[in-house]
Amino acid sequence: MPPRIRVAPSKLTKSPFPRRQITTSSRQYAALAQVPHSHDHSIIPELSTIKDYPITQPPTHRRPELRKSQLLRQYLTTLRSSPIILIFQHNSVLSPEWAAIRTVLRSSLQKVDKEQGTNVAEYIKLQVMKASILTAALRLDVWWKPDQLPHPETFVHTHALSEEAYEFAMSESKKKKHGLEPVLVGPIAVVTLPRMSPEHLKMVFSILSPSPEFKAPRRAANPAYYERAVQTGVPKLMLLGARVESKPFTIEKVKWIGTIAGGLDGLRAQLVHALEGVGASLANTLESSGKSLYYTLDARRDMLEEKPKVDQAENSHPDGAESK
């Protein structure tokens, strides 16, 4: 082992290499200070206009990559694009039962398409939704309409996931009600229809919520409906309410839409008949006063025309009148 070399502590702080001293001339600072400032602000943008986020991804209340954010967007799109939404409560429906119910519902709606000559069954969906996220999407759909607010320019971001949309919808929900609060509780499943079609709505009721008004299909007409998975899954679905044209509907009201004979054509015919009846009754009411006045004046004219004749007849036979 080599011998240790003892070094004094005072010598350890000194470096064996000479340090190079950096000197700065004061004339350089003076030269830099004398450089004229450019007054052309168009070259350098203002700090307030520089955005710290991409244009395609503005700031959001929640992270957009989260599943809850994606579901909120999906539910909001469904609410805005579906004129009829049926809300069901499902109680422990198994995945094979869901698959069987969807298959039967799709095949039954396709038969209605063939009869009506439409293509609606492809876009009618039965899906399970989270009640809490659906409630948040419903608040945004009902109250967050920045274009219709008094001062829309005050909102920097107007998309559904923005901080402004969240705060405004929450503040409005504390003061107002959208009408579906008692329904959006527990496990929720919805049926969305892309257009107002009473025939398709009637078929949905007969498959998912059969009743004396909407009887279930017969075994001969639809044998798949009587399979075990369908028969055990349908009783687990309970109709709670509906949303029609952005308005809450009770079960009785939405079922009335399904009972319209002839669908939209029948509804138009009923509307035309009702308007014709109202118009005829209104015309009769307006004409009645004029007719009564005409008959009164006509009777008075006849009386005035007959009175001179009677007076002339009495004056022409004065002796006969006295003898009598």
UniProtKB/TrEMBL annotation:
Residues 305-324 are annotated as: Disordered. Gene3D superfamilies: 3.30.70.1730. Belongs to the universal ribosomal protein uL10 family. InterPro entries: Ribosomal_uL10-like_sf, Ribosomal_uL10_bac_type. It comes from Microthyrium microscopicum. The lineage of its organism: Eukaryota, Fungi, Dikarya, Ascomycota, Pezizomycotina. This is Ribosomal protein L10.
